[in-house]
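Write out this protein's structure.
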Amino acid sequence: MDVIIERACGMDIHKDSITACVVTPEGKEIQTFSTNTIFLLQLIDWIKQHGCTHVAMESTGVYWKPIVNLLEAEDIEFLVVNAKHIKTVPGRKTDVKDSEWIAKLLRHGLLKANFIPDRTQRELRELVRYRRSIIEESARQQNRIQKVLEGANIKLGSVVSEIIGDSSLEMLRAIADGEEDSIKLASFARRTLKKKKDELELALYGYISPHQRMMLKTILNHIDFLKEQIEMLDHEVAKRVSEYQEDVERLDSIPGIATLMAEQILSEVGTNVKEQFPSAPHMCSWAGLVPGNNESAGKRKSSKTRKGNKYLKSALIEAAHSVRGSKNYLGALYRRMLLEKVKNEQALLSLTQCYVLLIIY
């Protein structure tokens, strides 16, 4: 095979050690380094001494990030590659053999790099993903409130539509502070909920024990803390995407996509979508939104979707769910597919692919 890259370095990365193999026209050299920053700097110097222009490594968890941070600073081109694409020959599995195999594949141009955005987008992506995890944690805490109330024979969730709405929160705080009179608790109802006072009095009559009051108070305090963290992250994300406001507004104009979801999509795919993804099918495949193709001897086997970017995939599926009953063209497309006896999962998948087309074009 032809040599595409004369001076290449392959790395086998672990939590506490890195085995690196440099292959040049002069020969081959292999060394092992610790993952502390001072030793990573020695690794970079060693790579520069050999004049390596390209470095390849497996996308092993988050252990590639410290190395990429240093390689970016030195303007050395790097490739973070899917581990499935560079499996070596069975029976020869050692760190040294793996690093040597990666270097050889890189030298002959047989590796395809994963999409690694620039540092600015990576920072935005970390903030947006963390915000999403906090929102999900807040939802879990709300479900715990419902469990505590059911254990106390209180059926508040059967009357109110939102367990942590303004009226519900006042009732819950009063219960946590020791209030037992269901009539007084029902008096906290506001606006349209006042019409359900009789139902509330029945629903709020229960037997709550001291440990349940303590749990309720702890969960409410946790939810308040999470709200503060979400607001802080909202402010930071908004500040970082302010320079991409046109892109956010364009995504926000698509039915089913609101500002928060637009920020999440932008953090995952970036602003130069067409440069990263040549076509909509490429982006669908990257997000894991296309069925697999597994056929042998004329028989079709499992065609489940592959693993992709779960954050982008979940955002697009959420958007597809939100437009199913709407009167816009996406909702009409979904209902037409159901009339044509397309399964619900396949119809939703088709909707997400339509969203990819709208995002790119």
